[in-house]
Amino acid sequence: MSAPRGLQGLQGLRVRLRLVYREIAKFGAVGAVGVLVNIGVFNWVRHSTDLHTVRASIVATMVSIVFNYVGFRYFTYRDRDKSARTKELTLFLLFSAVGLVIENGVLYTATYGFDWDSQLQSNVFKFLGIGIATLFRFWSYRTWVFRALPAREAVEQAEAFLNEEQPKAAAVKRRKAIS
User: Fold this and answer.
1) Contact between residue 54 and residue 104 where contact means Cβ atoms under 8 Å apart
2) 98 CB-side CA count, 13 A
3) What is the DSSP letter of 78?
4) What does the alpha-carbon distance between residue 166 and residue 142 come to, in Å, rounded to a whole number?
């Protein structure tokens, strides 16, 4: 006897949600360290050079983009398709550049639009920009850059099916042995 169709759908949904939660956690771990790198480099460059606020931020963002690529490729998305690295890196840099514009656009608006350029204000708007850009980056990286292998979902469904079928096969063997 198999589980009702609705129950199988719920089990499949739970498996998919667990995978998405795991992906979000890994993305968040790499991203959190990337934020620390970004903010740290930003403050270091801002105070140790003559670069203006937004230029220092762009330098910091570029450093964190390199850090994040390594973290995403070898930790968060290590199980994803690796066959087209040039395309992957090109798309990563393209979407990272859009994220850079979003992130630093917020800081630019605060700094030059509202004249909010104290150390605290710069860090607050830098952090806010990172947050907004992160939403875009998560969507774009998982959708376009680090694409799942096409067979992954099929393999997961087959494994779930086999796990459900093993107890059934044992019950059939017992019935045949008794008969």
Assistant:
1) yes
2) 13
3) T
4) 34
